[in-house]
Design a protein that fits this description.
six-stranded mixed sheet; globular
Length: about 700
């Protein structure tokens, strides 16, 4: 049973018990319905209380049942709410901690609601590309009023119960520290004989000139919701609470819900939701694997990346020490961190007190001996193996036993780095993405000797730092940068064949990317890609690249930091302006290599860039570098600006259909640089079987 039944005097108490958040799965719904029927059949019971065990009333639908037949098996959530609403004895919801989604819809079906202070109330379905489908859009406006309910439903943002205390959502909010169950049983006893039983469905939504308000809301939501249809449908559903009879509004809500469930945007959001949760699960690392305590940290390198990483630890309340070789570099790094926090305060996103607390957690040193007692040290120095070797040999010599030695390398062989130490089991890759204090992705690189406890610790740490940790095996570039190299190669070939940077960027930004490849390169620094290509020319001479980017770098055009890259930049202005010099260089280079430039459409640009990611992603999956296709999607959604409404490159390929992707790739394989389009064996196999990467 996942709902418990007890009787307190003349009050039956049904406690939802499906940890961790009492999701309303089939077993819980069945037990709750059985409990209500048992209470109705017992003449000694005069009132019924529904509450939740542990740290939640209910977080809503059980995510384990999403997209499965169980979600629609009787009793459904609709049936449970109907049973509650049609009860001949008063039903009181005892709300605490978390009351969200279907949990709030269940509470709205009760006759009364009593809440503890601090309970988080929300209908967050919009974040999954859907809307509340069990009466939430019809009942919430009836207790909160049109405006407040609409804001909650369209945003999906939780609101603390005490902020809603003066509304008809709650009949009572208990005093801080009061025993909720005791208070609710007393309340239920008091209202046991009150008739008629109050029902939310019988309330009216009164809002003067609601047509004007709803039209204003539609205009505002449309401007802010971008490619996602759910927010606007939420407005339509809430409007029905004002303009239709309750049952008609309920039916209309269901129609809109079913439309959204089938939308590609909702499927992509739900895919991302599950992908984020499964990314932390590693098959051979059990959930009870012991983790190492992380109380003190150190970063080697106080540059842009090192400073950004340090801020993550300070934000999480963990002391961090920055190590540099020169006082000037250390002072500059610490000053940059302070400036970043001060800017956040100016924007109103952080109080001055909290900023000072975080700044105080960051210190600096020039001596390796000073960081010896750190529980984890992250190297964030120049991306060159010889430099890493020097750092890791020194760390191996000074760090205490059991300290985790982490590298922020973005492309280099972690196993070689681990071999510079006498403790390869303690070495792991923690690849942060720039700006490290902002970007959600943390690529966790598992070396062949990395200890399971070290991996488990890194995954736990990623959550503490509010990052999405994705595990990668060791290869050149890991998941993200190995794939982006193929994307960048195609971008370079497109320039040689007829495109200019602005056209390529605009095409993929229209597709939904946060930033096109050339604006992205200017932001990251073109010299970084140049250094990697120089290494590739020696290590992999058979791999071809466009020389356009090398010619750009030879002019010293490294991007925003030099005021000139693929685009021109003005002092204090990050806007990219098309560069006549660069465009002329590109056209001239095409002539120099004997390529006749042609007109290239946006569809070809998008296909070549995105399918280059997909094809390399398939190789990464086949080699076991990524554990699952959804991990690759998470890397691209959280680290590379891939459009969320498309679900990531591998999910997008699934929606297009792998046979269609393969046919397109085979077409490009017949063109210029066709060798870059050899289809990945896994792609060929899955396309032939009619399967997807995420099947």
């Amino acid at each position: 049973m996942s709902a418990e039944y007890q009787v307190h005097g003349a009050v039956a108490v049904i406690t939802l018990a499906n940890p961790p958040v009492n999701g309303l799965g089939l077993a819980t719904r069945t037990a709750a319905v059985a409990g209500i029927r048992q209470a109705l059949a017992d003449d000694a019971v005069k009132a019924i209380v529904i509450t939740g065990a542990g740290k939640a009333f209910s977080g809503g639908a059980d995510i384990k049942e999403f997209n499965s037949p169980k979600a629609l098996t009787e009793p459904t959530l609709h049936t449970l709410i109907n049973v509650v609403e049609q009860s001949t004895k008063p039903v009181v919801a005892a709300i605490h901690s978390v009351c969200m989604g279907g949990g709030l819809e269940l509470a709205l079906g009760c006759n009364y609601r009593v809440a503890a202070p601090g309970a988080q109330m929300a209908l967050p379905e919009v974040k999954l590309g859907i809307l509340p489908g069990a009466g939430g859009t019809q009942r919430l406006p009836r207790v909160l009023g049109l405006e407040m309910a609409l804001n909650m439903i369209v945003s999906g943002t939780p609101v603390a119960s005490e902020k809603l205390a003066g509304t008809a959502l709650f009949d009572e909010v208990t005093a801080p520290g009061a025993d909720l169950l005791q208070a609710v049983v007393a309340f239920a006893t008091k209202v046991a004989d009150v008739r008629p039983l109050p029902k939310v469905r019988e309330r009216k939504v009164d809002y003067p000139n609601h047509e004007a308000f709803l039209q204003f809301s539609r205009n505002t939501v449309k401007a802010m919701s971008g490619p996602f249809p759910a927010p606007l449908k939420c407005v339509d559903a809430v409007a029905a609470a004002v303009t239709m009879k309750f049952d008609d509004g309920l039916k209309y809500e269901r129609e809109l819900f079913m439309q959204l469930v089938q939308s590609p945007e909702s499927k992509a959001l739900r895919h991302a939701f599950f992908a984020e949760r499964v990314a932390s699960k590693v098959p051979d690392v059990p959930s009870d694997t012991p983790v190492r305590a992380i109380a003190r940290t150190a970063i080697v390198g106080a540059g842009t990346m090192g400073g950004g990483i340090a801020m993550n630890f300070a934000n999480a309340g963990i002391p961090v020490m920055l190590l540099e070789t020169k006082q000037e570099a250390l002072d500059k790094g610490l000053a940059t961190i302070r400036k970043n926090y001060e800017n956040t305060v100016k924007k109103g996103k952080l109080t001055q007190d909290k900023a000072e607390q975080r700044i105080a957690l960051v210190s600096g040193t020039l001596a390796y001996a000073d960081i010896a007692q750190a529980d984890i040290v992250i190297e964030a120095v120049f991306e060159e193996l010889g430099v890493k070797e020097t750092v890791f040999k020194q760390l191996d010599a000074v760090m205490k036993p059991g300290a985790i030695l982490a590298s922020n390398t973005s492309t280099l062989d972690l196993d070689k780095i681990a071999a510079f130490t006498q403790r390869p089991q303690d070495v792991i890759g923690t690849h942060f993405f720039s700006p490290a204090n902002v970007m959600k992705l943390l690529e966790i690189v598992r070396g062949k000797a990395t200890g399971k406890d070290v991996l488990a610790t890194a995954l736990a740490l990623s959550k503490k730092l509010k990052k999405t940790g994705v595990v990668s095996g060791v290869c050149d570039g890991f998941i993200g940068n190995r794939m982006i190299e193929q994307y960048s190669r195609q971008a370079g070939f497109l320039l040689e064949e007829g495109c200019l940077p602005e056209q390529v960027d605009k095409a993929v930004e229209k597709f939904g990317f946060a930033m096109g490849p050339f604006r992205m390169a200017d932001l990251a620094g073109n010299d970084i890609g140049w250094a990697i290509r120089k290494r590739r020319y020696v290590e992999k001479p058979e791999v071809t690249y466009s020389k356009t980017a090398d010619l750009l770098c030879e002019l010293g055009r490294f991007g925003q930091k030099t005021g000139a890259g693929w685009y021109d930049y003005k002092p204090g202005d990050r806007k990219a302006y098309a560069s006549e010099q660069v465009n002329a260089l590109i056209v001239r280079h095409s002539a120099d290599i004997g390529v006749t430039r042609r007109k290239i459409g946006d569809q070809e640009i998008v296909e070549r860039l995105v399918y280059a990611l997909v094809n390399e992603g398939a190789r990464i999956l086949e080699e076991g570098i990524a554990l699952r296709a959804s991990d690759i999607d998470m890397v691209y959604l959280t680290g590379y600006g891939f459009p969320l409404f498309r679900g990531g490159p591998m999910f997008y390929a699934d929606t297009v259909g792998l046979p269609n992707v393969l046919d397109t790739i085979n077409g490009y394989a017949k063109g210029r640089h066709g060798e870059a389009w050899t289809p990945a064996p896994l792609l060929v196999k899955l396309a032939g079987e009619g399967k997807g990467f995420n099947s």
